[in-house]
Amino acid sequence: MLDLWRQRLRRHISRQFKYLRLVFNDHFVIALIFLIGALAMGYANLLKLLPPRIWWGGLVVGVLYTVVLGVGQLATLLEQADDTFLLPKESDLFHYLVAARNYSLILPTIFSVLAGIAILPLAAVLVVNFELWSGVMLILTLVILKDTQLWLALLGAYEVNGKTPTLYQHKTYFYGAVYGLILLGLYLSPFISVVLALAWNLWMRRNITGYVLEGQLRFEASIDLEASRQYKILKIYNLFTDIPSLQRHAKRRKYLDFLLKLFPANHRNTYLYLFARGFLRGTEYLGFYLRFLLIGTLILCFVHQLWVSLVLYLLFLYLSGFQLLPFFDQYDSIVFTKLYPIPATEKLAGFQKLLITILGLQWFVTSIPLVFVFGVNLQTGLMIIGGLALTIVFVFGYAKTRLKKGLAE
Amino acid sequence: MSLEIKNLTGGYAHVAVLKDVSFTANDGEITGLIGLNGAGKSTTIKHVIGLLIPQKGEISVNNMTLKANKDAYHQQIAYVPETPVLYPELTLREHIDLAILAYDLDHDETMAKAMVLLKKFRLDNKLDWFPNNFSKGMKQKVMIVCAFMTDAKLFIIDEPFTGLDPLAIHDLLDVVEAKKKAGSAILMSTHILATAQQYADRFVLLNDGKVRTSGTLDELKQTFNMSDANLDDIYLQMTKEAVDNHA
User: Fold this and answer.
1) Mutate which of B87, B96, B142 to test chain A, going by most A C-beta atoms within 10 A?
2) Over the stretch A201-252, which tens digit does the pLDDT of each residue have?
3) pTM of the model
4) Inter-chain contact A265–B97, Cβ cutoff 8 Å?
């Protein structure tokens, strides 16, 4: 069973690397460096504005520490066919799952440490009596809690007498308990957090074997959980490259139907008809677009340095358009799309119409904070014209050349 | 003469699945494309609809070829694939609308035709659903409706009987029969020989990427020297030959 785990892990990791290579190419790395730089600068600015050592500082910092634990789930790498093929091996599968749990600990641990370090300066400003060693202790607490959380996730894969232990499983209870522990650490002593987290962890570990021996693996639920976990990862990769195995989901979103009336339905707009509906009802692109739009607008409200603001303004437009490009190929696997008696150039034209509408809206919305922050003057005017120019060049220049490659055959 | 395939050699990348395949599917006739798994039925169909490009040979529909005018060629063809694939984000009504737009058909007239078909296949109360969440058979019905509401000259149906319930098979054959009477050519690949024998006018027997023989049932009987055989017997005879040849 452990061999099976190792084999799957090898395959999983090599697949991740294959996709990651595709993710970190193009202009994405440059965009990312800018984004991180801008975020770091914004963070530094924020620290200067905050009131030092205030009584509610711990409450805020506690929330941040708790949120850190939300990153990283149990990666079981279970596959669809497992409930048929591995059913006779159910009891052996425990060793597999333990190995999976141990592996799942690696990335979140690294993340907890990094995030813990990132929180340090904020905590040092906001929290009363916060020293370096308190930060280190709290990071240690986070790591122990992550370990506990993954044991809980493993337990959740089992049921005893048809029941899963909801009290442990319930996310609200878990995060509530974590928040409490962190608050104890911030307001009394970080030592208390470490000791209590450790006690909880050891108690979990002592009980787990007995519980599993008594219980039964929830095959179907565990497989579904893993499938949805992988789906989330693939969805991100899918922004950069085409993931063939990705099964798309759609939501009806009837309340958005009025937007579809913007585009007249005629033969020339066949692809626009399809793309507009796909965009508004698909679960992939609309969500990312709205996030870019919302976060972009908010950030631009708070940035007061002209150049930083300009770079971010253009960057958000670019990223938003960039993430939409793979959408162009979305329907190529559906045979009818290839059979339509429509020239390939119409497909590009339809896509560009959608793209210019979407990015045009973003250009308009994200220009509003610029006017409020920098006032009505020549500078602002030039920035906004720059944004419009980028949008137009992106849609009719960059997108066209990039997508034409796909049309060539 | 609607569909004409001349000396087609083709397949995937460098593997030639089809070797020198020639046959025709005439207007006002149902042509049954019969063969074992892997004989090349679906590959032939993929060549006809233009998903694969021939290595050698020529395919024409009413003397039009894909090469000469891709869009005019596609305008003449309606296709029902074996495995239903639908747009996840479109409702049933929008699938119909999209096909109307794509083939530049008259909206109201085509919608009326579609409604008749939808009623027949008991889908008329599901117009605002996402058909992607339907069962396999129902998805297939959606594709049948979208294909048969058009005025295509050539209907291509890949393995139509496997996912449909008996009532739906009956309804499909009705619809096919009507298109045949209206003068269209129908090319249908299938394994369900009893049904094929009953409805198809002519047969093309594929084996190992080659046309073993083609013609009406009577002509097939002569070729195989089996005077009182049915399609089933002839099919088995062909299978036996194939096994003998391999041995």
Assistant:
1) B87
2) 999 888 888 888 888 888 888 998 898 898 888 877 876 766 666 666 788 8
3) 0.75
4) yes
